[in-house]
Amino acid sequence: MLEKVASFELDDQHDEVLFGDDEPGYHEPSDSTLSVHYYETAVLIFPYSTDTWRKPRNKNEQRIYEYISLHPRIVPFIGIDMEGSTVLRYQQNGDLWSFLISPTASEIPLSTRITWAIEIAQGIAHLHAKNVVWADAHFANVLVSDDFHMLLSDFDFSLLNPNFFHILKTSPPPVFACPIGYLGIQPTHIDIFGFAIMLFALLDYRFPFTEDLKPRLETQTMICNKHCKLKFDQLKDSELDKYFGKLLDDCFNVRIVTGDTLVQMLIEAHSKWYSETGQVSH
Prior knowledge:
The protein is an alpha+beta fold. 34% of the residues lie in helices and 9% in strands. The strands form 3 sheets. It has a 4-stranded antiparallel sheet, with helices on one face.
């Protein structure tokens, strides 16, 4: 669990180990917006007054944070304390999954949710530009900043310069899991698939093949099985499908494999949607 940080000193010791010793365990989402977590090593949100938090040591994650920081779409990395823990900037709004299932989530305008999707894509594009594969793209690893922007976090399993045939070690919630049949493709595709699930949910306010954003584990497993058979759901809103359906299909079928292309196509879809519907982003 994360703890408050009263003070810390930077540690110059680094390690070349690709993966840390942490073995996260999956947790189903709950309605709480203050203490929800999906992985034992994920950022836990509690209402303390300090603005810094620390995670248990994970050498790979620390190396990734040092390599990709600072960026407006990445949770701010402060440093490494004397115990070797990772020190991050505290985000009082918690993770995006908790935020979206909170009682007030239905008040979030569609235009804002699309903007959030663009911001997540921008974070992924930054990682890919650095030759980093997030490898754990899902709502619980996206934090909502104090001013309601999206921040990517949790890089325990992220990879730097992986080869095309790297066997990914990630175990995201099943609804976000990329079909294992996509082998021999640029490994960044796993981030694009996870993003596609997030975009679908932000647009339709439900996960594929479900009616809400709180599917039980057995339901998520069912969704994962459909995806492994390359069966993908469509947006219920035909108007949204008109503007974003092809983009989703390209992501699900990994015709898009890198963040820069993703951002470009998403912005184009958003611009067309905005110009033809008169919707306003917030």
